[in-house]
Amino acid sequence: MFENFVTATDITVCLQLVVAMILGLILGGERTLAGKNAGMRTHSFVSMASTLFVTSALLIVNGTSAGIHYDPLHVVSGIITGIGFIGAGTILFRHSALEGLTTAAGLWVTAAIGVSVGFGFYIIAIFATLMTLFVFRAVWFAENRLKMWHEDSEPSNQDQVA
User: Measuring CA to CA, how many Å separate 46 from each of 7, 65, 90, 112?
Assistant: First the structure.
């Protein structure tokens, strides 16, 4: 009954969406643990949407006649612009401090990971996810240690007055 309804391409795209969702959930999980607003759902949506845009563009290119010229890289350009808009919404200025830059950058990387999955570059997408997790967690830890070391090494205001 469904043999003419569901194609191998449909199954492939569905599996790509699952991979994109999982990678987005991993990155969003870290942001949730870090107490950020853009968490698991946001990151998985960004990754899945990027994958869906790319796979749809590729399907259109592969299904069009020779007279129609369509470049799927224009879709990627639109994704980059759209994520810039979403990322800007995560950046806040509070008490003379900028917040949300890392989350905005993380959303940008998540979109790129989704694009990679959409083009079928699974190993690259998984590696980029692991690198992003490393930056989110390990570099955060190192950054905090560096800040504490720097604060401890600075002379206090009382030392400067005397």
Answer: 25, 31, 14, 9
